[in-house]
Specification:
Blueprint lengths: L4 H36 L4 H22 L2 E6 L8 E4 L5 H9 L3 E5 L8 H7 L3 E3 L8 H11 L4 E4 L19 H6 L3 E10 L2 E2 L11 H9 L4 E7 L10 H16 L19
Parallel strand pairs: 1-8, 2-5, 2-6, 3-4, 3-5
Antiparallel strand pairs: 6-7, 6-8
């Protein structure tokens, strides 16, 4: 055990060194984003959306450059409007996807109140859903309205985050808006790894607190991230649960995980949206 102590102390010193320069830059970048957001509010509504999308993407790309992430994107998102569906590991998923292409997200209403993370989600054009609303008939109408305006919509169909060791059941109810709008499904797979093994720092799970999670992340050595845009799934003449199974299978295969998509047959109830 004593022999391990110098290595442990060296790791602590390295983490402190990383935070020494990363933390101030992240704070400054967030303040810049808040200033730009305030300036955008001065524009008339009809002129605000195009610059908002561009500024949001550039801001997210800048934030990624300050975080210890080595990112590899595989494939390309469709240039046409689609419902994006993928696994959910961390709040970082939002930044990674939002920096790649214009997309809006679906999240539970409580996320809006979270420090910084809520602000990030709102700036990305997130559609916030209150508890109980996700199981109502108005869900497809709300999501469909966003897609009618030409916006891609990202749904984390597991309804929660995982440690990246599995992909939970995809809830079929969330696919209804794509069927009604006759739009394709864009499966997306996200993986965080370190030394070819699943990374344990990036996942944001259970009762993790955002500021503590960010602090750990800022002190970490680089994490390898793979974001895979998979072949489109046609939603025409398919049921919600069938689409859920197909998307689940595509994501789990891309991640090299076991596929339990048969469970999606009874997944027509939505616990929560994260």
């Amino acid at each position: 055990m004593p022999a391990l102590r110098p290595a442990f102390q060296g790791s602590q010193l390295m983490g402190a060194g990383h935070r020494l320069w990363r933390a101030p830059l992240v704070v400054l970048w967030v303040l810049l984003g808040m200033l730009l957001t305030a300036l955008l509010q001065l524009l008339p509504d009809r002129w605000r959306e195009p610059p908002r999308q561009g500024i949001t993407r550039l801001w997210m790309r800048g934030l990624l450059s300050l975080l210890p992430l080595r990112i590899r994107y595989h494939g390309q998102p469709t240039p046409d409007t689609a419902l994006w569906v993928g696994n959910h590991v961390s709040w970082l998923d939002i930044i990674l996807l939002g920096a790649r292409a214009p997309v809006r997200f679906v999240a539970k209403a409580e996320v809006r109140q979270w420090p910084l993370l809520g602000w990030l989600a709102e700036r990305a054009g997130t559609v916030f859903i209150h508890r109980g609303q996700a199981s109502g008939a108005s869900l497809n109408q709300r999501l469909g309205k966003v897609m009618q305006q030409g916006h891609n919509l990202m749904v984390f169909a597991e309804g929660t985050t995982t440690a990246g060791d599995r992909v939970r059941t995809f809830h079929g109810r969330l696919f209804g808006c794509a069927i009604e709008q006759r739009l394709p499904i864009q499966p997306v797979a996200l993986a965080y790894r370190r030394c070819e093994q699943r990374d344990s720092i990036a996942p944001f799970i259970d009762d993790d607190e955002f500021s503590l999670h960010l602090w750990r992340l800022l002190g970490a050595s680089p994490i390898d991230v793979d974001v895979s845009f998979l072949p489109l799934i046609d939603s025409h003449a398919r049921g919600r649960n069938e689409l859920a199974r197909r998307a689940h299978r595509a994501v789990t295969q891309a991640l090299g995980l076991a596929d339990d998509s048969s469970d999606c047959q009874s997944a027509d109830s939505l616990r929560a949206v994260a």
